[in-house]
Amino acid sequence: MSNECAVVWDESLLSYDLGGNHPLHPVRLDLTMRLARSLGVLDGVVPLVPGQAADAELERVHTPGYLAAVRAAPTEGPDVGHGLGTDDNPIFDRMHESASLVAGGSLTAAEQIVSGRANRAVNLAGGLHHAMADNAAGFCVYNDCAVAIAWMLANGIDRIAYLDIDVHHGDGVQTAFREDPRVMTISLHQHPHTLWPGTGFPTEVGEGAAKGESVNVALPPGTGDAGWLRALHAVVPSLLDTFAPQVLVTQCGADPHREDPLADLALSVDGQRAAHRSLRSFADRYAMGNWLILGGGGYALHRVVPRAWTHLLATALDRDVAAERNVPADWIAHASKVAGNVALPTSMTDGGETAFTPWDGTAEYAVDPAIRDTRNAVFPLHGLEPLDGRD
């Protein structure tokens, strides 16, 4: 299949900066783009420069009162409420402008796909999946994922699958569309008993006409490459095949990595690279090749996120980077100036083993209870047999 991939990027997106030592530091984006350029992944690619999302677009998801609070917060402080001014969501100058620019980047990517100018589009600055209609949450001011999905629904797209591989539950997107049968949300995340935000149980399956359209795979802490990939392939292909989306939207947080300081899954960068290739295959097989790719979490800022997301960009552009490729010396020289005492990686691999045993409903691995719980909760709602191991 021939694919045209648009990349949304401008250094102005680095202005979404929660300040100080906040975990969501924009250096991760800067280092990613520098690494991708240094490896030649972006050769010949002219990035699309986003503009700020208009209020009318944000209000497809967020309340007018919340937008007003975000605008007022830099001068009025935490008294504005709405989850602003907390340790997770500190107030910063031009917060509305910066957050609406991130949302505008995801809208720009969505527009490329809906218009037919591209069938893949990437906004690594996006993926702020925790923001709710009336409040900030989990480092997220505006929910660009939901804003882009809502825009596509208003512009001719009837069925959208949203697949979230961040280590944290994609709660904001699930909440936005839990009653909308046009959107299936699938989230693979660390079990909510062990990680914020404490939601994303398999029993959360959507409401009303959308019952069965919310899908949650709650993975045990310590799940590594083989178990994570086993769960992905045991749940996702069957549902996408049945749902038949016109667009696949993926939130590709890099925080399931074993070095991430805020969570407890154990993927390698090799497992993440394999996951990205699976997402590409899913888009081609089940969504007519239409793939909207967003960033997300990731707090191992120097060692993990740049490599994981460079592999993601390369996958989207069909310029796959060999796992054994060395990290260029010029990138290491630059990164060493901002990484402090962090030991920087020298290779695009962690040496991870990505082979996995496909789930067939009989063999038993540590991840299998999570797989069974999800399949039992959701598959019958789509006329699928929970114990059938076929994709």
From TrEMBL:
Any one Gene Ontology biological process term? Answer: acetoin catabolic process
Pathway, per Swiss-Prot/TrEMBL? Ketone degradation; acetoin degradation
The source's domain of life comes to Bacteria
Which residues does the UniProt record annotate as the domain Histone deacetylase? 22-314
PANTHER family this protein is in? HISTONE DEACETYLASE HDAC1 (PTHR10625:SF10), HISTONE DEACETYLASE HDAC1-RELATED (PTHR10625)
User: Can you tell me which family this protein belongs to?
Assistant: Belongs to the histone deacetylase family.
> What is this protein called in UniProt?
Acetoin utilization protein AcuC
